[in-house]
Amino acid sequence: MKRINISSGTMWEPIVGYSRAVRVGNVVHVSGTTATDATGSIVGAGNPYTQTMQALRNIGSALKRAGASLDDVVRTRIYVTRISDWEEIGRAHGEVFGKIRPATAMVEVSRLINAEMLVEIEAEAIVVNSGNGKRAGSATRPKRKPIRRSGR
Fold first, then answer.
1. 19: left (phi over 0), alpha (psi -120 to 50) or beta
2. End-to-end alpha carbon distance in the chain
3. Which pLDDT belongs to residue 152?
């Protein structure tokens, strides 16, 4: 399978030796992404909601360059410096992924590469497009009832 490396042009990529995203076949892995703009400046200093939305916009841009979209995301990992911000971060994540509902985790870390960064998000996507604009199997997949668990 062909491997495609996607660069965002940040100063960290060549220093650390990574790509913003890597696509192999129909799978796209997006590296930890923060709330930076095109110049590398932090967007939304001190605001976890704004930073989350910017990080997700950056992820969307990387996915697009890899031939995917946010609709293809199956997993996110959210790293936060203040777990007490979980509701604002979760609200932003939910606004983007509320209908997509990828698997996710939110983990508190002691700090990120820049002290102004409050959120870093990784994403994994699987492109499942049959070529006719519809997702493969979408017309034939039966609706499933949610699993209800007792005791919680």
1. beta
2. 44
3. 44
